[in-house]
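Reopening this ticket.

The earlier resolution said the output was attached, but the attachment link was broken on my side. Pasting everything inline this time so it's all in one place.
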Amino acid sequence: GACASGGNFQTVAKALVRRGSGQVLTLDAQNHGGSPSSPLMTYEAMSLDVQHLLSRLGITKCILLGHSMGGKTAMTLALQRPDLVERLISVDISPVSTTPVSEFSAYISAMKSVKIPDGLSRSAARQLADDQLRPVVQLPQLRQFLLTNLVEVEGRYVWRVNLEAISYHLADIMNFPVFHKPYPGPALFLGGSNSPYISSKDYPEIQRLFPKADIQHIQGAGHIVHQDKFEEFITAVLNFLPPP
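Inline output:
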C-alpha cells in the first residue's frame, strides 16, 4: 500500500509459508522501503517493476497479493499480462477511482511537516512524530502504520518513503487505468467490513474485469485488513490458494 513496505507483510509471509503456501516474496514498491526512487509513479510503471523482477528471478507464473495501492498494481499486472498471474488477491481495494484523495493528501502533508530534533532516541523520535501526526491522523493504528516509515540516517530522523513523488502522483495512485479485456483467472477481493474501499457500487466493475472474482469481507476489519484481523486474513488467503 501507499506509505507501506514489504516489511509490513513479513509476519503475513512467514505465517503463509509456515502453513504450506510455498515460497513468498515481499516487495517494496518504487519510492517505498528499500526500493529506488522513480519520478514516474503510475500503475503501469509499478506493474513493469514487478514484471522485471519476475523475469529476473525466472518466475513464469505467480500468485499475486497486493493491499491498497499494491492491490491496484497487482490488478494492473494481471490485466496486462494474465499469462504471468495464476491467481490474484486484492486486499481492500477495487479497480475504480478511490475518492478520498483529500484525506490521504492531508496525511502526506502532516508527514512532511513533522519536525524532529537530532540526537533523540528512536522511541522519543517516534513519540514526537506520533504527537505531531495525531491532530490530522486520528486513528492510532493508521499513525503506527505511517510511522513504520520513520528511519534514522546518520543521526537524523527522516521518512524512508518518497513523500514528494507520492504527493505529486496522488491522482495517479487514486485512479485506476482503463482496461477492456478481462483477467480470466481466479481472483479474490478481500475487504474489511469497516472500510469503504470495496463497496457494492464497485461490484459491476470488479465483475467486468474479473469475471471469476470472489468478493469477501472480514468482519470487524478496517482498511489494513491483515493487521486488524490477522488470523481471519491468513485463513481467507490460504483457503483461496490452490491445493499443494
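Reporter confirms the inline version is readable. The beta strands are 62-67, 85-91, 150-153, 156-159, 187-192, 213-218. The first strand starts at residue 62 and ends at 67.
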